[in-house]
Specification:
CATH class: Alpha Beta
Order of helices and strands: HHEHHEEEHE
CATH superfamily: Glutaredoxin
Number of strands: 5
Number of helices: 5
Number of domains: 1
CATH architecture: 3-Layer(aba) Sandwich
Largest sheet: 5 strands, mixed
Structural class: alpha+beta
Distance between the termini: 37 Å
CATH topology: Glutaredoxin
Strand order of the largest sheet: 2-1-3-4-5
Radius of gyration: 16 Å
Helix content: 25-40%
Length: 130
């Protein structure tokens, strides 16, 4: 096996760039994934989940899919919420309580503006095109 170098990794990325671009959201469906591992639940993820569910119902957001997952690996930032939607970068929010969930809904989902102070992960600049 050849030694992995930056050049080799860049070549692999170039070869699979189309696959990576096709992993994003292709339609108007908004995907919300909430970390519900034990660390997330202990930090208050149920409150965030309930707020997303309640607001989606109240605002009649028929294009939203809300899922639960286990630990996302950011225990220090729990509760964590990943948002995927068309024309916005995939975004991972941390320390999301009920009030922050409301901000994410009104600013990110409905207003198209990131809630920057709670973002814990941005996409790589060479993958996401503004």
């Amino acid at each position: 096996m050849e030694k992995l170098t930056v050049k080799t990794l860049q070549k692999l990325r170039a070869e699979h760039k189309e696959d990576m671009e096709n992993r994003g959201v292709q339609d108007d469906t908004i995907h919300i994934t909430i970390g519900m591992g034990t660390c997330g639940i202990a930090a208050g993820a149920k409150e965030a989940l309930n707020m997303f569910l309640g607001e989606a119902y109240t605002r009649k957001m028929d294009n939203i899919v809300i899922r639960q997952t286990g630990c996302m690996g950011l225990c220090h930032a729990e509760p964590t919420v990943e948002v995927k939607m068309k024309s916005m970068p995939d975004t991972l929010y941390g320390r999301v309580d009920g009030e922050i969930a409301k901000k994410i809904i009104s600013s990110h989902l409905l207003g198209g503006r990131l809630v920057s102070e709670y973002i814990f992960d941005y996409p790589a600049g060479d993958i996401y095109k503004e």
